[in-house]
Amino acid sequence: MLQLTGIKKRFGTIQVLHGVDLDVRAGEVHALLGENGAGKSTLMKILTGIIQPSEGTITIEGEPRQFSNYDEAIAAGIGIVFQEFSLIPYLTAVENMFLAREIRNRFGLLDRRAMHDRAKEILARLEVDVPLDVPIAKLSVAEQQFVEIAKALSLNARILVLDEPTATLTPSEVAHLFKVMRELRKQGVAIIFISHHLEEIFEICDRITVLRDGEFVGDCLVSETDTDRLVEMMVGRRIENSFPEKPGPRADARVMLECEEVQLRKGGPVSDFVLREGEILGFAGLVGSGRSETALAMLGAFPAARCKVLVDGVETRFREPAEALAHGIGLLPESRKEQGLITSFPILQNISINNYGKYRRGHWFIDLKKELADTEAAMKEVRVKAPGPMARVDTLSGGNQQKVVIARWLNHQMKVLIFDEPTRGIDVGAKAEIYQLMRAFTAQGYAIIMISSELPEVIGMSDRVCVFRQGGIVATVEGDAINSEEIMSHATTGRVRHVA
């Protein structure tokens, strides 16, 4: 169905793709793997006409093609669902699906019934039920994902690119997406699937192509490889264990943060927990269980019916995140691009932005020399890979963007760090680096709350785990009780059991 041969791409003097090959067959789910910065997105942008290759050929069903823009790629039967949706939130699902190519009647007027019927037909093909006449903003993330896929199929896409489609889905939603993908495979659609979750690759894909540093490393059948081999192909080395060794409990560890009587809504469950110096406290539970909301309520960023906070034994209540910041509590939010970074700004300003008070000289001036020195020191500590502190954040890989957020809080001398989905959208090599950094911080006396939807991450990194269900903590487990069976039992049944 599709063959990319010798694809090269240069941006100025920088070569980002070095003769990459990729072939995808009809009725196949083909995984495209590689670390952040390996060239996957650039290759897909070339395939869809968004950018032009410096060299190389694109062949579709034996016919050489060259796309000067995205519309030409669409006309050739290529559809792409980006990791960050391209939907207009205030338009309905139908309006989004037919935007700029609306169906009109013989009088030139919009034929809303025809568009509605066509959208319903496509969604029926996917075996999903999505409200068609409500604004996209009111749909769940999974429903928006299916609208994106339906939009691509409404263009008669025979080649479908899915870029990190499961990043924000629950396990049941992922299962349904895979069911849809299997149905599309039966219908002869060629699917290119990009994901950092290797377990998903083995569940849904037929073949795999691996890129590293803009080069084609190799391809293989899923049935003839394993996780260790894929990781070695992606990062160029074996990662024996991405999770650092846990230091074990400390009897003398002081309580740095204590939350009592946290109630997100009136009549809802009441939670309490403590965070000790040098530990990682995991927040686990199904999506919507109240993990992030509880942390945000503690910081004054989410309305709560009740919330009592003690910092180093002193009771306080934060009315806004700035007050939590002043008490040494920093947040790495779930969406680093939307909530954690100003991506059009350089690294320098993203790291300094909360800290300009200490750089002020007089009323109007900033000590740029000190700001630059602090930024470079913070970048070095967390190992940000970038040309320099003036590099724009949107030019960095996901892992390096996350490190910039971490560097900001180190620069601001935080002592309590809340990591919300710390490795979402990050490749296996960068994940291992983030884990090592987190353990290095706790060894220095920091305390960390880690909120994660990835159960292996919760188990591998947490010293203790608070399990959430329906808006509150139903169990706190540690030691041998930190296992998938115990955590999921509490998360799904709500059996209350606190282990100090």
CATH architecture label name of the largest domain: 3-Layer(aba) Sandwich
What's the main sheet like?
7 strands, mixed
* Bulk shape: globular
Strand order of the largest sheet: 16-19-20-13-21-22-23
Number of domains: 2
What is the average of the pLDDT values?
87
Keywords: ATP-binding, Cell membrane, Hydrolase, Membrane, Nucleotide-binding, Plasmid, Repeat, Sugar transport, Translocase, Transport
EC number: 3.6.3.17
Organism: Salipiger abyssi
Subcellular location: Cell membrane
For this entry, give a set of tags.
6-stranded mixed beta sheet, repeat, single chain, alpha/beta, Rossmann fold, cell membrane, 500 residues
Outline the fold blueprint.
Layout lengths: L1 E10 L2 E11 L4 E5 L6 H8 L7 E6 L2 E3 L4 H6 L2 E4 L11 H5 L14 H15 L14 H14 L4 E5 L7 H16 L3 E5 L3 H7 L2 E6 L2 E7 L5 H9 L19 E9 L7 E6 L3 E5 L6 H9 L6 E6 L2 E3 L4 H6 L2 E4 L3 H5 L6 H6 L7 E2 L3 E2 L1 H15 L15 H14 L4 E5 L7 H16 L3 E5 L3 H7 L2 E6 L2 E7 L5 H10 L3 E2 L2
Parallel strand pairs: 3-8, 3-9, 6-7, 7-8, 13-20, 13-21, 16-19, 19-20, 22-23
Antiparallel strand pairs: 1-2, 1-4, 4-5, 9-10, 11-12, 11-14, 14-15, 17-18, 21-22
EC number: 3.6.3.17
Keywords: ATP-binding, Cell membrane, Hydrolase, Membrane, Nucleotide-binding, Plasmid, Repeat, Sugar transport, Translocase, Transport
Pfam family, one: ABC_tran
Structure report:
There is one protein chain. The chain has 17 helices and 23 strands. By secondary structure, the chain is an alpha/beta fold. It folds into 2 domains: 2-235, P-loop containing nucleotide triphosphate hydrolases (Rossmann fold, 3-Layer(aba) Sandwich); 255-498, 3-Layer(aba) Sandwich (Rossmann fold), CATH 3.40.50.300. The strands form 5 sheets. Strands 16-19-20-13-21-22-23 form a 7-stranded mixed beta sheet, sandwiched between helices. A 6-stranded mixed beta sheet has the order 6-7-8-3-9-10, sandwiched between helices. Strand 1 and strand 2 form a beta hairpin. Helix 4 (112-126) crosses helix 5 and helix 13 crosses helix 14. It is globular. The model is unreliable at 496-500 (pLDDT under 50).
